[in-house]
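Supplementary Note 2. Why include the ligand at all?

Several targets in our set were suspected to adopt different conformations when bound, so apo predictions alone were not considered sufficient. For every target with a known small-molecule partner we therefore ran a joint prediction. The input for coenzyme A is given below.
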Amino acid sequence: MEIRDGVEVIPDVEDFFVGWTKRPTQEVFKNILKNSDVVVAAVDETGTVVGFATALTDHALAAYISLIEVLPEHQGKGIGKAMTDRIIERLGNIYMIDTVCDENLVGFYEKFGMKRGIAMMKRNY
Ligand SMILES: CC(C)(COP(=O)(O)OP(=O)(O)OC[C@H]1O[C@@H](n2cnc3c(N)ncnc32)[C@H](O)[C@@H]1OP(=O)(O)O)[C@@H](O)C(=O)NCCC(=O)NCCS
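The joint prediction is reproduced in token form.
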């Protein structure tokens, strides 16, 4: 398994966004991976992308981890941690790195020194 910066071949969106009521389209997925400021991917020995993570940053003060996902069959092997470590490393010495997550992921993000806070969200379902 290798953690890479960027994604060379856009994966099939049908493989990701597991459990989402409405997946983004392939076009939207392509734009996410093209336009995010930081993109990392976990690629297996066959060259298949088995995980990805994205972040947005102003490169000055504030950054936001927007998406992270590891394919279900590859979860629990340290891939999510390796990708998050790489994202944080690439965001550099910046004042704030935020994300929004469900309750069951608080423990995961705490491993990176992140603390529980209050977020306001607007979603266009
Ligand atoms: C969340 C996710 C990215 C974690 O990736 P992963 O590869 O399964 O996690 P890792 O194997 O790297 O786990 C790293 C550490 O976090 C812990 N961990 C993983 N998921 C956790 C959770 N939900 N709560 C608490 N700890 C968790 C692991 O036990 C491990 O701990 P250790 O280092 O002490 O052994 C993955 O489960 C996933 O893709 N989930 C579905 C999509 C999702 O929820 N994304 C986040 C949106 S905010």
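The radius of gyration is 14 Å. The pocket of coenzyme A is lined by residues 68-70, 75-81, 101, 104-105, 107-108, 111 (CB under 6 Å). Comparable summaries for the other entries are listed in the accompanying table.
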